[in-house]
Amino acid sequence: MAANLTDALESSTLRRRKMIGLSLGIGLGAFGVGTLVAFVGGLIKTRGNRWCRPRKARRRCCGRRAGLPDIRVKRSTWPRHRPTRRPAVCQDAPEDIDAGGMETVFPWRESDGDGTTPESHEKLLAITMGVRNPVMLIRIRPTDMPKVVKRKGQESFNFGEFFAFTKVCSHLGCPSSLYEQQSYRILCPCHQSQFNALEYAKPIFGPAARALAQLPITIDTNGYFVANGDFIEPVGPAFWERTT
């Protein structure tokens, strides 16, 4: 009789069910502890300023503004969706970009303010978030300057080794956000169009048929980049009725 009972216990799943129940209990307990820790952690406030601060940049923020041209080239320094009391504009100078490097900048009018007032903050935020506003500021290495081919009628658009092209792809308007430093290739990750920055951002691969629009640039008396005018051709995707 005892042997039969032992054999029945071994062949049943009662012991396995106990293990399953124990594992389930341990899992639920760990989940409960994690939830409690997250809840308590959310109640703890950190000391100091609760607004996140932008990373420290070596670029000089705007301060000397009297007598400067109206159209500027800026780099946004405020954190998205967070108010800030710090200056919202940081201007680029030639020494801020390494040879072969690229920086995303935004053309901005000085009359729009520097972001220190609610009105100018809204204007600069709209400029930064604008679809057609991002511009790639590229610095060509001195040894590669002999390879540069300038577009007819735009020979004076660059400032020395610095060239500025729109970041809006000429295929369907996607952001051409990838840049290969060694080959100076600009890549649109959406449809794989590639542009050669050494040859007026001319398309060399993919469906894009137009070069990226180039922005004329120079520097002011304080050594900051400024736009020397607006784009002279449409920015964005090509259409059948366009001749450029």
Q: What would you say about this model in short?
A:
With 244 residues, this protein is an alpha+beta fold. The chain is built from three helices and eleven strands.
Query: How many distinct folded domains?
Result: 2
Please list the strands of the largest sheet in the order they lie side by side: 2-1-3-4-5
Q: Which structural class do you get from the secondary structure elements?
A: alpha+beta
CATH classification class of the largest domain: Mainly Beta
Assign a percent range to the helix content: 10-25%
- SSE arrangement, N to C: HHEEEHEEEEEEEE
Oligomer: single chain
Morphology call = elongated
Distance between the termini: 97 Å
Describe the structure.
The chain has 244 residues and is of the alpha+beta class. It folds into two domains: 2-43; 71-227, Rieske Iron-sulfur Protein (3-layer Sandwich). Helix content is 21%, strand content 19%. The chain has three helices and eleven strands. The protein has helices at 2-11, 14-43, 118-129, and strands at 71-76, 89-91, 102-109, 135-139, 162-166, 178-180, 185-187, 194-196, 202-205, 217-219, 225-227. It has a five-stranded antiparallel β-sheet with strand order 2-1-3-4-5. It has a four-stranded antiparallel β-sheet with strand order 6-7-8-9, with no helix packed on it. The N and C termini lie far apart (97 Å). Keywords: 2Fe-2S, Cell membrane, Disulfide bond, Electron transport, Iron, Iron-sulfur, Membrane, Metal-binding, Oxidoreductase, Respiratory chain, Transmembrane, Transmembrane helix, Transport.
